[in-house]
Amino acid sequence: MKFCVLLTGFVLGAALNGPALGKPNVVIIYGDDVGYGDVGVYGAEKIPTPNIDRLASEGLQFMDGHCTASTCTPSRYSMLTGRFGFREGIGILPPGAPLCLPTDKLTLPKLFKKAGYDTAVIGKWHLGLGTEGVPTDWNGDVKPGPLEVGFDYSYLLPVTNDRVPCVYLENHRVVNLDPADPLYITEEPVPPQGFAGTVYPIGRKNRKAQTYYQADDQHASSVINGIARIGYQWGGKSALWNDETMADRFVEKAKAYIAAKKDRPFFLYFAAQDIHVPRAPNPRFLGVTGLGKRGDAMVQFDWSTGEILRALEQNGLTENTIVIFSSDNGPVYDDGYADGSTVRKSDGEVDNGHDGSGPYSGGKYKIYEGGTRVPFIVRWPARIKPGKSDALVSHIDFMASFAKLLEIELAYDEAPDSRDSLAALLGEDQTGLPFMPSEAGATIALRRGPWKYIEFGRGGWMHKDKAGQRELFKLDEDIGETRNVLSLYPEVAEEMAARLAEIKNNGRIRD
Ligand code: NG6
Ligand code: CA
Fold this sequence. Notes:
The protein has 10 helices and 20 strands. The chain is an alpha/beta fold. Helix 2 packs across helix 6. Strand 18 (443-448) and strand 19 (451-455) form a beta hairpin. The structure holds 2-acetamido-2-deoxy-6-O-sulfo-beta-D-galactopyranose and calcium ion. The site of 2-acetamido-2-deoxy-6-O-sulfo-beta-D-galactopyranose has 15 residues, from loops.
């Protein structure tokens, strides 16, 4: 027995520090609005995802893995800070929002830097840029941003692909910006005073300019590349991204980063824009699924994943790189653009045979399982035995779990909502978290064993119809959250309400 413990300690030590392997690289491949049921190994039958499926077969496939929120900004905020978004009222950020991550606190990239890693973020940011109250100067240094919270390198889609500005940002600078056509973004459809640069059509007033596909009025501000967006952009024509080559661009940057850093431990947060609206997969993926652009964008994301895995392989890094594949929130179909993702007939929506939530209820913007239970795969050939796990795990625990792995002590107030789930993430514990909050706008839920307790908040538009109500589900008998059993188990509901109140009041979840 003692020998076993010693041996395990030795192997672990060797895996982490020994001459053979050293510290593992960590790559998070993060999808945008990719649902549990959008991946082959999680049940998608109409979307071929061979690369993600291969990753799962070589790693651990979590069946109960979660992001913290059913929208992007709070989800990513929690993953990168180890703090729940509800503590700070973090919601979906508009174009031009200031940085919402703290520059003076420990973040996931800073944790890796403490351990000597090089760090990078490539892809969708949506965590704000600049300082509160100071208009961001898109023609100068755009900061604070990723570099100020611990990333050594960044190549970004600054907000979302349905929000302006439609340009790439590399470190502090907009890529390819012509000073003769400076870039501005405004909240109102009025250019800055004296503006003489490129003016884009306003979608609401000019439907014909929306040549790619039509957007609803909430998305119909500036029309760029024939697609209407949220917010108003002025100028910056030479810097415009091409929606159809965005995946190629991010993959190219990720490959270059991996090749450049192959001799040192690195942390790469690869945040794909797929499969968020406006979906504009490269023409080479069009029609592959028969599910419209949404399905085809998922095939594109699978391709991106495959390219990153290949880059690791080509640089001899597969064995000692932890690859995590997941998503920032559950699925959505028609999210403001007529992109053929929802099959409609005159009498309303009809089923196209694909459910991105798998067997779960809800999706993006919802507190039900489909909102936060996402594909969640962890591959580390040097340490993790391939298989499946039913352990309850959450992205918010990456901070404490990687701290454990890298033998870094977290101070009491660092990442206060992050708990050490390393054993579950490595497949050595099949249970995972004893309890786990999740959020959707003002609504918060708590999972505990078979139970899921929900408090619908007041304020905001998500779940507005249920504001002030409560629900309780027994997931082992009702995985689809169809029967609210609150009145049958009032004592369970009260216990869970008390725990939730404690989590909120304590300002932390870690002991
Ligand atoms: C919503 C947008 C939606 C999407 C979402 C953010 C409207 C009507 N809808 O407000 O299109 O951009 O924000 O998605 O504006 S997320 O994945 O980044 O959270
Ligand atoms: Ca998202």
